[in-house]
Amino acid sequence: MALTICPWKHNKTWVYSITYDEALIDLHQFAIPIHEEYGIPGHVEVVVGQLGETRNIGNSSYNGYRHMNAAELKDLLTRGWGIGNHSWSHELIQPDMVDLEIGRAKDVLEAAIDAPVDLYCAPGNNSNMSDHVLKACRKHGYLGAMSLTDALNRPNTPLFWINRTALHEQYYAPFFSEYDPFRNIRHAQAQNGWIIDYCHCPLEKPIHPNKDCSHLQLRKRFETILTEGGDNVWCAVPEEVLFYHQTRRHTQIETLSDTEIQKHYRLHLNNLSDRVTCRTLTLHADVPAPWCRSPNVWIDGQPHLAHLIEPRKLQITITVTDGMELVFKDPSA
Ligand SMILES: [Zn+2]
């Protein structure tokens, strides 16, 4: 196949996202300014039953801190952040609770922020990734579910078990650990991985060493992501990555003709969810060297600039549609 879809947008090698469970207003104290400084978007996970209220959940380390309200969450959207459902109550979700915790929580949150909520994020632990919870996530139209498993995600990762890397000062006993700003990066570089960091609300000192990092540790993490990643890391909110992942996996390329003067393809978007509202793909086309002097692609008959990225290889990043036709051709023909 001379036309292929890159594993990640912009042909980046690996991907970095970060999530903040509980969506506390105190993120403005340290975390959000660091995001603004480095240009990396964040993502908050909202306990919908306590939207805007001071936290009061069991013996949570964050009781007494205030959850963001709708206007404060909308402000994050304008900063390029994303918002997920962290359940209604933050309790262990039993089968008879899914309509409230997964369904109603999503509806209420979407109405509050006036935007789709495509991601569920398990509260507590992976007990909230049980079969009945994930089944309810599919039924209520989520695109993915985030767990508390420390592992990479890959271009073919199942989206109803997305892994997250705990960006915490120390791990729980018996696996005590030292904070590692390089955590999972080399692994991601080698395996086209997608790291999603997970913390709560970094302050000067972590509220709990097993649940958070400090603001200096967060800053060190971003510096490390960018210095290690250089041009090869794609920093994006999880939804943008999910949209790419879904569009790539549902796109089929049909070759209509492949001759000495042109290569003609048609794209088929098979069963792609309407909730995938950004349908951008980065594609590579192998073409003869003489065509690279004027690197163009004709998309449904209209010429667009393509980029030469190595000899005989052109790259384009485009919004795709079902039935779209792409033609690469000899500019002298
Ligand atoms: Zn939580």
List low-confidence stretches: none
Beta-strand proportion: 15-25%
Which CATH architecture of the largest domain would you pick?
Alpha-Beta Barrel
Which cofactor or ligand species appear? zinc ion
As for the CATH topology of the largest domain, it is TIM Barrel
Residues in helices, as a percent range:
10-25%
Helix-strand topology string: EEHEHEHEHEEHEHEHEEEEEEEE
Largest sheet features: 6 strands, parallel
Terminal CA distance reads 23 Å
Task: Supply the CATH class of the largest domain.
Answer: Alpha Beta
Please describe what this structure looks like:
By secondary structure, the chain is α/β, with parallel strands linked by helices. The chain folds into 2 domains: 14-236, TIM Barrel (Alpha-Beta Barrel); 244-329, no CATH class. Helix content is 23%, strand content 25%. The protein contains 7 helices and 17 strands. It has helices at 31-38, 70-78, 98-113, 131-139, 185-191, 215-229, 238-250, and strands at 3-5, 14-21, 43-46, 82-85, 119-121, 144-146, 165-166, 194-199, 233-235, 251-258, 262-269, 280-286, 296-299, 302-305, 307-310, 313-319, 325-329. The strands form 4 sheets. Strands 2, 3, 4, 7, 8 and 9 form a 6-stranded parallel sheet that branches. α4 links the parallel β5 and β6 (144-146). α3 (98-113) crosses α4. It is globular and about 70 Å long. Residues 21-22, 86, 90, 123 line the site of zinc ion.
